[in-house]
Amino acid sequence: MWVDLADLYATYQSTLGYIGINALLALSVYTTLSCGQLALGSAGFMAIGAYAATLLTVRAGWPFPLALAAGALAPALVAVPLGLPVLRLRGVFLAIATIGFGEVVRLGIVNSDYVNGAQGMVAIPQKASIGLIALCLAGALFVLGRLRGSKWGFALEAIREDEPAARTMGIDTTLYKLAMLVLGAALAGLAGGLEAHFTFMVAPNGFSFERVVDMLVFAVVGGARTFWGPALGAAFLTVLPEALRDLAPLIGVQPGPLRMLISGLVLLAVILFLPNGLVSLPARIQQWREDRQEARQQQPPPAPEKTP
Protein backbone atom coordinates (compact mmCIF):
# COMPACT_ATOMS: atom_id res chain seq x y z
CA MET A 1 0.00 0.00 0.00
CA TRP A 2 2.77 2.42 0.95
CA VAL A 3 4.54 1.61 -2.30
CA ASP A 4 1.37 2.47 -4.24
CA LEU A 5 1.01 5.77 -2.39
CA ALA A 6 4.65 6.60 -3.09
CA ASP A 7 4.15 5.85 -6.79
CA LEU A 8 0.96 7.92 -6.83
CA TYR A 9 2.76 10.84 -5.17
CA ALA A 10 5.67 10.59 -7.62
CA THR A 11 3.26 10.52 -10.56
CA TYR A 12 1.21 13.52 -9.51
CA GLN A 13 3.91 15.52 -7.71
CA SER A 14 3.93 18.17 -10.40
CA THR A 15 0.13 18.47 -10.31
CA LEU A 16 0.17 18.91 -6.53
CA GLY A 17 2.74 21.66 -6.85
CA TYR A 18 0.73 23.49 -9.47
CA ILE A 19 -2.42 23.21 -7.37
CA GLY A 20 -0.68 25.16 -4.61
CA ILE A 21 0.88 27.71 -6.97
CA ASN A 22 -2.36 28.28 -8.87
CA ALA A 23 -4.25 28.60 -5.59
CA LEU A 24 -1.87 31.36 -4.47
CA LEU A 25 -2.40 33.13 -7.80
CA ALA A 26 -6.17 32.83 -7.46
CA LEU A 27 -5.95 34.31 -3.97
CA SER A 28 -3.91 37.21 -5.35
CA VAL A 29 -6.88 38.09 -7.59
CA TYR A 30 -9.35 37.46 -4.75
CA THR A 31 -7.73 40.10 -2.51
CA THR A 32 -8.87 42.95 -4.74
CA LEU A 33 -12.16 41.25 -5.63
CA SER A 34 -12.94 41.16 -1.91
CA CYS A 35 -13.29 44.95 -1.98
CA GLY A 36 -15.05 45.04 -5.34
CA GLN A 37 -12.01 45.94 -7.47
CA LEU A 38 -11.24 44.08 -10.70
CA ALA A 39 -7.45 44.49 -10.74
CA LEU A 40 -5.71 42.11 -13.17
CA GLY A 41 -2.05 42.93 -12.73
CA SER A 42 -1.19 39.66 -10.98
CA ALA A 43 0.75 38.31 -13.98
CA GLY A 44 3.05 41.33 -13.85
CA PHE A 45 3.49 41.03 -10.09
CA MET A 46 4.19 37.32 -10.50
CA ALA A 47 6.87 38.06 -13.11
CA ILE A 48 8.58 40.57 -10.82
CA GLY A 49 8.59 38.10 -7.94
CA ALA A 50 9.80 35.20 -10.09
CA TYR A 51 12.70 37.09 -11.64
CA ALA A 52 13.66 38.81 -8.38
CA ALA A 53 13.84 35.51 -6.48
CA THR A 54 15.68 33.80 -9.36
CA LEU A 55 18.31 36.53 -9.73
CA LEU A 56 18.94 36.56 -5.99
CA THR A 57 19.44 32.79 -5.75
CA VAL A 58 21.26 32.16 -9.06
CA ARG A 59 23.43 35.26 -9.43
CA ALA A 60 23.63 36.81 -5.97
CA GLY A 61 23.82 33.54 -4.06
CA TRP A 62 21.19 34.47 -1.48
CA PRO A 63 19.66 31.70 0.65
CA PHE A 64 16.39 30.56 -0.89
CA PRO A 65 14.11 31.65 2.00
CA LEU A 66 15.49 35.20 1.86
CA ALA A 67 15.24 35.28 -1.93
CA LEU A 68 11.65 34.01 -1.77
CA ALA A 69 10.74 36.70 0.77
CA ALA A 70 12.36 39.33 -1.44
CA GLY A 71 10.40 37.95 -4.39
CA ALA A 72 7.18 38.61 -2.46
CA LEU A 73 8.33 42.00 -1.19
CA ALA A 74 9.47 43.42 -4.55
CA PRO A 75 6.04 43.37 -6.29
CA ALA A 76 4.40 44.60 -3.09
CA LEU A 77 6.63 47.68 -3.19
CA VAL A 78 5.84 48.19 -6.87
CA ALA A 79 2.10 47.92 -6.13
CA VAL A 80 2.16 51.03 -3.87
CA PRO A 81 3.00 53.68 -6.52
CA LEU A 82 0.97 51.74 -9.09
CA GLY A 83 -2.12 51.48 -6.94
CA LEU A 84 -2.36 55.12 -5.87
CA PRO A 85 -3.34 56.36 -9.36
CA VAL A 86 -4.99 53.27 -10.90
CA LEU A 87 -7.27 52.52 -7.95
CA ARG A 88 -9.09 55.74 -8.77
CA LEU A 89 -10.45 53.81 -11.74
CA ARG A 90 -13.29 51.33 -11.48
CA GLY A 91 -14.61 48.31 -13.32
CA VAL A 92 -13.30 47.61 -16.80
CA PHE A 93 -11.07 50.71 -16.79
CA LEU A 94 -9.19 49.41 -13.75
CA ALA A 95 -8.92 45.98 -15.37
CA ILE A 96 -7.48 47.44 -18.60
CA ALA A 97 -5.00 49.64 -16.72
CA THR A 98 -3.67 46.74 -14.64
CA ILE A 99 -3.53 44.42 -17.66
CA GLY A 100 -1.46 47.11 -19.36
CA PHE A 101 0.90 47.14 -16.38
CA GLY A 102 1.38 43.39 -16.71
CA GLU A 103 2.14 43.69 -20.42
CA VAL A 104 4.67 46.48 -19.76
CA VAL A 105 6.47 44.23 -17.27
CA ARG A 106 6.43 41.27 -19.66
CA LEU A 107 7.68 43.26 -22.65
CA GLY A 108 10.37 44.86 -20.48
CA ILE A 109 11.62 41.38 -19.60
CA VAL A 110 11.48 40.25 -23.23
CA ASN A 111 13.73 43.16 -24.25
CA SER A 112 16.18 42.79 -21.37
CA ASP A 113 19.45 41.00 -22.16
CA TYR A 114 20.30 40.84 -18.45
CA VAL A 115 17.62 38.16 -17.93
CA ASN A 116 18.11 36.49 -21.36
CA GLY A 117 15.12 38.20 -22.94
CA ALA A 118 12.44 35.97 -24.43
CA GLN A 119 14.51 32.82 -23.81
CA GLY A 120 14.22 33.25 -20.07
CA MET A 121 16.45 31.74 -17.41
CA VAL A 122 16.98 28.01 -17.04
CA ALA A 123 18.82 25.62 -14.73
CA ILE A 124 17.32 27.24 -11.65
CA PRO A 125 17.93 25.04 -8.60
CA GLN A 126 14.80 23.24 -7.42
CA LYS A 127 14.37 24.68 -3.96
CA ALA A 128 10.56 24.74 -3.72
CA SER A 129 9.16 21.50 -2.35
CA ILE A 130 5.53 20.41 -2.17
CA GLY A 131 5.61 20.94 1.58
CA LEU A 132 6.88 24.51 1.24
CA ILE A 133 4.22 25.35 -1.36
CA ALA A 134 1.53 23.88 0.91
CA LEU A 135 2.89 25.85 3.86
CA CYS A 136 2.78 29.12 1.90
CA LEU A 137 -0.77 28.38 0.77
CA ALA A 138 -1.85 27.56 4.31
CA GLY A 139 -0.33 30.82 5.55
CA ALA A 140 -2.15 32.82 2.88
CA LEU A 141 -5.47 31.13 3.69
CA PHE A 142 -4.91 31.76 7.41
CA VAL A 143 -4.30 35.48 6.87
CA LEU A 144 -7.31 35.88 4.60
CA GLY A 145 -9.46 33.76 6.91
CA ARG A 146 -8.56 35.98 9.87
CA LEU A 147 -9.82 39.00 7.94
CA ARG A 148 -13.30 37.48 7.88
CA GLY A 149 -15.39 38.91 10.68
CA SER A 150 -12.72 41.44 11.64
CA LYS A 151 -12.83 45.22 11.35
CA TRP A 152 -10.91 44.95 8.08
CA GLY A 153 -13.26 42.28 6.80
CA PHE A 154 -16.38 44.35 7.50
CA ALA A 155 -14.77 47.40 5.90
CA LEU A 156 -13.91 45.42 2.75
CA GLU A 157 -17.48 44.09 2.52
CA ALA A 158 -18.84 47.62 2.89
CA ILE A 159 -16.55 48.89 0.10
CA ARG A 160 -17.53 45.98 -2.12
CA GLU A 161 -21.26 46.54 -1.66
CA ASP A 162 -21.32 50.35 -1.89
CA GLU A 163 -18.08 52.31 -1.94
CA PRO A 164 -19.60 55.82 -1.71
CA ALA A 165 -21.72 54.74 1.27
CA ALA A 166 -18.66 53.19 2.92
CA ARG A 167 -16.77 56.45 2.44
CA THR A 168 -19.57 58.43 4.08
CA MET A 169 -19.34 56.05 7.06
CA GLY A 170 -15.75 57.18 7.63
CA ILE A 171 -14.01 54.19 6.02
CA ASP A 172 -10.73 55.14 4.34
CA THR A 173 -11.53 53.32 1.10
CA THR A 174 -8.23 54.25 -0.59
CA LEU A 175 -6.22 52.74 2.24
CA TYR A 176 -8.16 49.48 2.25
CA LYS A 177 -8.09 49.07 -1.53
CA LEU A 178 -4.38 49.85 -1.70
CA ALA A 179 -3.62 47.42 1.13
CA MET A 180 -5.46 44.60 -0.64
CA LEU A 181 -3.67 45.36 -3.92
CA VAL A 182 -0.32 45.21 -2.11
CA LEU A 183 -1.29 41.93 -0.42
CA GLY A 184 -2.36 40.46 -3.76
CA ALA A 185 0.93 41.57 -5.35
CA ALA A 186 2.89 39.90 -2.56
CA LEU A 187 0.97 36.64 -3.03
CA ALA A 188 1.53 36.73 -6.81
CA GLY A 189 5.25 37.42 -6.30
CA LEU A 190 5.45 34.57 -3.80
CA ALA A 191 3.80 32.23 -6.30
CA GLY A 192 6.21 33.38 -8.99
CA GLY A 193 9.25 32.69 -6.82
CA LEU A 194 7.91 29.26 -5.92
CA GLU A 195 7.13 28.36 -9.53
CA ALA A 196 10.57 29.42 -10.77
CA HIS A 197 12.25 27.20 -8.18
CA PHE A 198 9.80 24.35 -8.77
CA THR A 199 10.00 24.12 -12.56
CA PHE A 200 13.75 24.94 -12.96
CA MET A 201 13.03 27.83 -15.34
CA VAL A 202 11.36 31.18 -15.76
CA ALA A 203 10.38 32.84 -19.05
CA PRO A 204 8.26 35.88 -19.97
CA ASN A 205 5.73 33.83 -21.95
CA GLY A 206 4.55 32.40 -18.63
CA PHE A 207 3.23 35.81 -17.59
CA SER A 208 1.05 36.65 -20.58
CA PHE A 209 -2.55 37.85 -20.64
CA GLU A 210 -3.77 34.25 -20.77
CA ARG A 211 -2.16 33.59 -17.40
CA VAL A 212 -4.09 36.36 -15.66
CA VAL A 213 -7.31 35.15 -17.30
CA ASP A 214 -6.64 31.74 -15.78
CA MET A 215 -6.23 33.35 -12.36
CA LEU A 216 -9.55 35.17 -12.70
CA VAL A 217 -11.31 31.99 -13.86
CA PHE A 218 -9.93 30.12 -10.83
CA ALA A 219 -11.47 32.72 -8.52
CA VAL A 220 -14.82 32.88 -10.34
CA VAL A 221 -15.28 29.11 -10.64
CA GLY A 222 -14.37 28.49 -7.01
CA GLY A 223 -16.39 31.42 -5.69
CA ALA A 224 -15.09 34.91 -4.99
CA ARG A 225 -17.35 35.50 -1.99
CA THR A 226 -15.30 33.34 0.36
CA PHE A 227 -11.57 33.32 0.99
CA TRP A 228 -11.18 29.62 0.27
CA GLY A 229 -13.33 29.57 -2.88
CA PRO A 230 -10.54 30.70 -5.26
CA ALA A 231 -8.23 28.00 -3.88
CA LEU A 232 -10.96 25.41 -4.49
CA GLY A 233 -11.45 26.66 -8.04
CA ALA A 234 -7.72 26.51 -8.72
CA ALA A 235 -7.55 22.93 -7.43
CA PHE A 236 -10.57 21.88 -9.51
CA LEU A 237 -9.35 23.41 -12.76
CA THR A 238 -5.80 22.15 -12.25
CA VAL A 239 -6.93 18.58 -11.63
CA LEU A 240 -9.60 18.57 -14.37
CA PRO A 241 -7.20 18.21 -17.36
CA GLU A 242 -5.29 15.46 -15.55
CA ALA A 243 -8.54 13.64 -14.74
CA LEU A 244 -9.66 13.86 -18.37
CA ARG A 245 -6.28 12.53 -19.44
CA ASP A 246 -6.70 9.47 -17.21
CA LEU A 247 -10.34 8.97 -18.23
CA ALA A 248 -9.64 9.40 -21.94
CA PRO A 249 -9.22 5.67 -22.70
CA LEU A 250 -12.41 4.84 -20.74
CA ILE A 251 -14.72 7.41 -22.35
CA GLY A 252 -13.10 7.26 -25.79
CA VAL A 253 -11.83 10.84 -25.81
CA GLN A 254 -8.48 11.30 -27.45
CA PRO A 255 -6.03 14.01 -26.38
CA GLY A 256 -6.45 17.20 -28.33
CA PRO A 257 -9.22 19.68 -29.09
CA LEU A 258 -12.06 17.33 -28.02
CA ARG A 259 -10.66 17.01 -24.52
CA MET A 260 -10.26 20.78 -24.35
CA LEU A 261 -13.89 21.08 -25.47
CA ILE A 262 -15.04 18.83 -22.62
CA SER A 263 -12.98 20.87 -20.18
CA GLY A 264 -14.61 24.05 -21.49
CA LEU A 265 -18.10 22.55 -21.21
CA VAL A 266 -17.48 21.59 -17.60
CA LEU A 267 -16.31 25.12 -16.91
CA LEU A 268 -19.39 26.57 -18.64
CA ALA A 269 -21.70 24.31 -16.65
CA VAL A 270 -20.17 25.43 -13.37
CA ILE A 271 -20.58 29.10 -14.28
CA LEU A 272 -24.18 28.66 -15.51
CA PHE A 273 -25.57 26.48 -12.73
CA LEU A 274 -23.36 27.65 -9.85
CA PRO A 275 -23.04 31.43 -10.30
CA ASN A 276 -21.56 31.74 -6.81
CA GLY A 277 -18.93 29.13 -7.55
CA LEU A 278 -18.23 25.62 -6.36
CA VAL A 279 -18.43 26.73 -2.73
CA SER A 280 -22.19 27.15 -3.18
CA LEU A 281 -22.68 23.54 -4.32
CA PRO A 282 -23.53 22.10 -0.84
CA ALA A 283 -26.08 24.87 -0.24
CA ARG A 284 -27.65 24.26 -3.67
CA ILE A 285 -27.93 20.53 -2.97
CA GLN A 286 -29.49 21.22 0.45
CA GLN A 287 -31.97 23.65 -1.08
CA TRP A 288 -32.89 21.12 -3.76
CA ARG A 289 -33.55 18.47 -1.09
CA GLU A 290 -35.73 20.87 0.94
CA ASP A 291 -37.73 21.88 -2.14
CA ARG A 292 -38.23 18.25 -3.05
CA GLN A 293 -39.38 17.36 0.47
CA GLU A 294 -41.76 20.33 0.56
CA ALA A 295 -43.24 19.33 -2.79
CA ARG A 296 -43.88 15.83 -1.48
CA GLN A 297 -45.63 17.19 1.62
CA GLN A 298 -47.89 19.41 -0.50
CA GLN A 299 -49.09 16.50 -2.61
CA PRO A 300 -52.70 15.47 -1.71
CA PRO A 301 -53.05 12.14 0.11
CA PRO A 302 -54.24 9.24 -2.06
CA ALA A 303 -58.03 8.76 -2.19
CA PRO A 304 -59.37 5.84 -0.08
CA GLU A 305 -60.43 2.81 -2.03
CA LYS A 306 -64.23 2.26 -2.33
CA THR A 307 -65.57 -0.90 -0.69
CA PRO A 308 -68.28 -2.86 -2.58
| Structural class determined from secondary elements | mainly alpha
Described by the principal axes of the CA atoms, the overall outline is globular
- Please report which band the strand proportion falls in: under 5%, 5-15%, 15-25%, 25-35%, 35-45% or over 45%: under 5%
Taking the sheet with the most strands, its summary is: none
The number of distinct β-strands equals 0
Q: What value does the Rg take, in angstroms?
A: 23 Å
The arrangement of helices and strands along the chain is HHHHHHHHHHHHH
Distance between the termini: 68 Å
- Approximately how much helix is present in the residues? over 70%
Q: What are the low-pLDDT stretches, counting only 5+ consecutive residues below 50?
A: none
**Mean pLDDT reading:** 88
Supply the number of helical segments.
13
Question: How does this structure look, described?
Answer:
The protein is an all-alpha fold and 308 residues long. It has 13 helices and no strands. It has helices at 2-11, 13-33, 42-58, 64-86, 91-110, 130-147, 151-161, 163-168, 173-196, 209-222, 229-251, 257-273, 281-298. α4 (64-86) packs antiparallel against α9 (173-196). The longest helix has 24 residues, at 173-196.
